Amino acid sequence: MSAILEINHVSKRFAMGGVFSRSYVEAVVDASFTIEEGQPEVFTIVGESGSGKTTLARMILGLEEPSSGELRLGGQLIGGKRNRAARLEFMRHVQPVFQNPFEAFNPLKHVDRYLEASARVLLGAKEDDQVDAAMDEALQKVGLSLAEIRGRYGHELSGGQLQRVAIARALIPNPEILIADEPVSMVDASLRMSIVNLLRDLRDNFNVTVLYITHDLATAYYISDRLAIMQKGYIVEMGPAQTILESPEHPYAQLLKDSVLSVADAGKAKVEAPDRSLAQKASEQSGTGTLVAGSGGRVVRRVAQE
Known about the structure:
Blueprint: E1 3-16, E2 23-36, E3 42-46, H1 53-61, E4 68-73, E5 76-78, H2 84-93, E6 94-97, H3 101-104, H4 112-121, H5 128-141, H6 146-149, H7 159-171, E7 177-181, H8 189-206, E8 209-214, H9 217-223, E9 226-231, E10 234-240, H10 241-246, H11 251-259, H12 277-284, E11 290-293, E12 299-302
Parallel strand pairs: 3-8, 3-9, 6-7, 7-8
Antiparallel strand pairs: 1-2, 1-4, 4-5, 9-10, 10-12, 11-12
Helix pairs in contact: 4-5, 4-7, 5-7, 11-12
């Protein structure tokens, strides 16, 4: 079975400081994984702020250039500076959904204009009726219709509706992969599960693989088929989501699980914070570690001292 997307030993290093005091920080270190063709899934990258998960997504989207490593789409190298034709071809296969839907749409522009542009440029629709049909079909997939959003501005829609429009825009070229970077963090808590359920429906009903970027273990557990946990630029544990979240083996993965509040803590005046010492030690030693096979089909970053 061939791969749709291959991430091979990808790293990203950012320069900091001036000419005479320059230093470097590794945002992503040696990340590797594959998304297979014909196996739609939700593959989740989870980690706290600064772990490198968004930088990894930006490299896949071409918004950041890798310092080293390879990215391949359908076996073809991607990354670096892409001309317009290469960029449009990539966007027909891979589409983003960003964190804040209110920043994704110009407040002075009708939201349906974004869908129209995608239909004309990426789908190649020429006639107005073809464009309208493509827009309405995509909106129907997310529980909306063209009649509901035509001629409306972003501020006239709720956060949940606007994020659905953003997802509909991404679905117009019928991509194989949807990269959703924290898509529910700016949506009201009461609406988050509707977006999460929508992403799962895209996998089940429309054969879309979702690369889901989040810091929220609760939604990750609910939606994920596979999971990669990142800590300070490193993938520290990766494999079947249920296996990892029920019995994590890496200290940082264990810390993330222990940090999720239990209903048993409801009403208590104080909740004890989990011990971060083992996870911190593992982070400090991660540069000397390697990913090795663990139990249940996972890989875990091990260090020499273990």
